[in-house]
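[agent] plan:
  1. take the single chain provided in the ticket
  2. run structure prediction with default settings
  3. attach structure tokens to the ticket
  4. add a short note for the reviewer (M.T.)
[agent] executing step 1
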Amino acid sequence: MTERIAIVGGGKIGEALLAGLIQSGKQTKNLVVAERMSSRAKEIADEYGVLVTDVASAAEGAHYVFLAIKPDDVDSVLRQLASADDSADSERVTVTLVAGIPISRYENALQAGTPVIRVMPNTPMLVNEAMSAVSAGRYVGDEQLAAVVGLLESVGKVAVVPEKQMDAVTAVSGSGPAYVFLMAEAMIDAGVALGLSRPQASEMAVQTIRGAGLLLSESGLSPVDLRAAVTSPGGTTAAAIREFEANGFRHGVYEATRACAQASAKAGHRPDVEGLSGANGRRTDSDTP
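[agent] step 2 finished; step 3 output follows
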């Protein structure tokens, strides 16, 4: 059966998902985007050859509706989705990529029994290397969950987790790219301080992080094993690791991820986010469109 997929929001994450779906073989005639900014809507239509329309029209007849929007826009979009006139034989699955808003808020705002799936993606989705965590609402069937996981796999890897783990997911993978970027910044600045030009230091740091990530992903070895392989007793790497540990590197990572998880939990329980009616919830920093 050909399934219609709607993406609400034509920002970077929405566009990345659209591009990934097309690359995975989805036909453009079965894809539709809702984007309110006319200039952006034209860009997407011209670039990908898909229909770009309003929320209600995009959702009508859609089997899956992905919300790639900011928390500020959730209230308005949910009202439009609730009023969408779906065909009787189509059970629409709402998939939210919005950070900080629990599944129950969508279930309460939409038609009773609506299947809702919550996703925490991250920005490597822009290069088809996302790590997305997925949690299913109470009305989601196994086949529906499997189908959404398959769609998200077009832009990276997917893990299914209970919603109670979403704050931990945010701390590790949702905000995780920022930690790596911060490390890259520090390595580049250190290289410049040691006498390298900034372009030289940038190229070396970026390629080192890229290569290390691929090695970690593809070697089958643990981070401990890989670090030990580089660290000769009494050698140069050992001297660097000793300074990292002396300056609390590992403790800093623990504390940073804990603070991130706490901030995520707090964002999910703010009255302005939970109520949705008249919501003015700000996005968290963890890669929401």
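[agent] step 4 note for reviewer: The two ends are 30 Å apart (CA to CA).
[agent] ticket updated
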